[in-house]
Amino acid sequence: MFVTDFEKGEGAGGVERLVCLDEESGRILWTREWAADYRGISYAYGPRATPTVDGGQVFVVGASGILLALRTETGEVIWRKDYASDFGSRIPVWGIAGAPLADGNRLIVIAGGRPGGLVIALDKSTGRELWRALPPGDDMGYAQPVLIEAAGRRQLVAWSPEALSSLDPVNGSVLWSVPFRVHLGVTLSTPVFDGARLLVSTFFNGSMMVDVSGQTARVLWRGKSDSEINTDGLHAVVNTPVIDGGHIYGICSYGQFRCLRAQTGERVWETMAVIGEKARWASGFIVRQGGRYFINNDRGELILARLTPQGYEEISRTQLIRPTSNPGNRRELVSVHWSHPAYANGHIIVRNDDEIARFRLLAIRGNKPS
Fold first, then answer.
1. What pLDDT score does 352 carry?
2. How far is CA 46 from the centre of its chain?
3. 157 in Cβ contact with 174 (< 8 Å)
4. What would the mean pLDDT of 155-161 be, rounded to a whole number?
5. pLDDT at 330
6. Cβ atoms within 10 Å of 6's Cβ, excluding its own
7. Count of CB atoms within 10 A of residue 146's CB?
8. What is the pLDDT of residues 18-71, one digit of tens each?
């Protein structure tokens, strides 16, 4: 398993690291570190993007735009790129957050390259640039790209503060683009694909759902509110909503857990039970598990719940890890937990600023997990 961290140095500098751990024991197998300059980056707390593992390589990008391709077994550097010096990127105020996307022989990144390089595809083995697409605009945003299959073709979806766009992943040609201006560039949550529908949601400007069943995308609906407080549908922050059948479930700007009708964006219900307090940037991470959901809220709790159009049904919750991060606003617990967990092999792996831990999710009956 792979996890990033940061050791602060003098001034705005420090050292970012990728640490490889043995999944069973937590023993450190190897580490790779590199210098990072955080001048101009708010929240100088370390890398934001999840490492991407593919074909014996692990790809990691730090907050200041240092991208490394490493061997998974040894941590040996295969190649390295610097977004600013190699691509002409302007690092956004909250740092680089979009994880690299592996697709065949390509590694695709939201790099904000200038000129014309909001999205850049690199040769996965060598780091050589294969193509670049879309103007970066004033702000490149933070959401990672996603691959979908719609209208009989594979599509690469890139969400920038200017528009939601689809590209041909092989050559970067633009298939369609839907304008959607996002205030302060906060494209944070990952676009959600469900059949022929594609959903994006943001803190200030709310949500937009587009139909991607044809050769061009068509807006099904868009929220009417541009306010973080007077919200009409869903205004997600760092959490990604889910689409389940005809409904959307997600966490709004001040911790309201909401259900919307997927076809219209109309709100069905809301509850404060998941977060427990109304607070700016309140957040949680939602992962489907069969007919139920795991929800990691920012109080460090793991919740098991059922989500239906009839309401929120909590099955159980447990305190998983201690919140340690300063959210920049007043909260009941002072600190929050904003790190997405990893689920693998019947376990959950979770970390805060002080520790990383692995918990078994499967019940043991006799000598067998169930």
1. 95
2. 15
3. no
4. 97
5. 82
6. 19
7. 17
8. 999 999 999 999 999 999 999 989 888 899 999 999 989 999 999 999 999 999
d(CA 112, CA 130): 15
Which tokens hold the place of 137? 């605009």
Q: Is the peptide bond before 115 cis (omega within 30 degrees of 0)?
A: yes
Rounded distance, CA 99 to CA 48, Å? 8
Quickly count: other Cβ atoms within 10 Å of residue 57's Cβ. Answer: 18
Tell me the chain's radius of gyration from C-alpha atoms.
20
Spatial distance between the Cα atoms of 158 and 131, rounded to a whole number of angstroms: 15
